[in-house]
Amino acid sequence: MRIIFLNHDLNNNTGAGRFGLLLLNYLKQEIPDLEYRVLTHDNFLPDKKNKLLFSLLKIRAIFKKYDIIHALDGWPYGIIAALASLGLKRKLIITAVGTGAIQPLYNFWKKPIMVWAYRRADQVVAVSNNTKQEILKIIPNLDIQVINHGVEFEKFQSADWRTKPKIIDGLRPYILSVGSLKKRKGYEYSISAFAEISKKFPNLKYVIVGRGPEREALKLQITNYKLQNKIIFLDNLNEDELIALYQNAELFILLPQDIKKDIEGFGLVFLEAAAAGLPVIGTKASSAEDALLDGRNGILAPQKDFNQASDAMVKILSNTELKKSFSQESLKFAKAMNWERVAQQYSSLYHNL
């Protein structure tokens, strides 16, 4: 089986890169005869519009050597794949992830070609039901299959993570968020929710792992709440340190928001937290609905409602039995949401095209 993939990068430090790397690693195990190539943004997308035709012709020549073309998001990779494969009689799959799959559908200039590319694909796959529903609002009759992301469950099970890295020294007890500092992550609401409960839990800290454009605005918000000594930003962590932070946290919280269709595609960090046995808190009408089980291993709060998010934290932190039950359910859920499952679903899709 010969498949060519289009993705932004294969960098383990980016969401798109991690998705591509993990998918390929497990597909190679699932499909022994897999021959593949990955075209990434830096190598094959032109930096100037007047070079676009040349790039498409170059990509088209490469496509001829493969049976299946798989774009790992809608914009621009689904567009490029659809254009460069015209007339080649190759099977085309577009995986719709997040913002790049949705935002172009609300842009006057981009919408027509995005709709055309989705309709031209032999199969559109969405990484969450939320992503699927957002596309169906614009293209109601489109056939979309949902294949959620997975998690490397075993990686989070070693007891060594709890004590080995020094990153956790002086932090406990703490709640945890992991993700780039962007508006759509909802940090302004999780910080407000933490401010609501900090008097009830005076020793509790809030650790946020990530970097991004909202850092200064969030630091100002923290200063206004006088929580500079309780909310800690961390970044540049290695894998051992990140897993140690998951393993030692009291709970995980991330409150994804829909910001002008800039959305989270799938909440992989919720699965990572679950794999570490953490209760999780997310938001309704977001990708978190696929990445946690409301009322079983965590709680979904309405978007932009920090009061309900703070109530959810109090409910978990104040009830030892509930926290233990959520933790056990998190482990069960994460174990089932593995990358082997993802690879099997994609393998079945490839073979049935």
From TrEMBL:
Residues 39-154 form the Glycosyltransferase subfamily 4-like N-terminal domain. Residues 169-330 form the Glycosyl transferase family domain. InterPro entries: Glyco_trans_1 (IPR001296), Glyco_trans_4-like_N (IPR028098). GO terms for molecular function: glycosyltransferase activity. Gene3D superfamilies: Glycogen Phosphorylase B. Pfam families: Glyco_transf_4, Glycos_transf_1. Coiled coil: none annotated. PANTHER family: GLYCOSYLTRANSFERASE. This is Glycosyl transferase family 1 domain-containing protein.
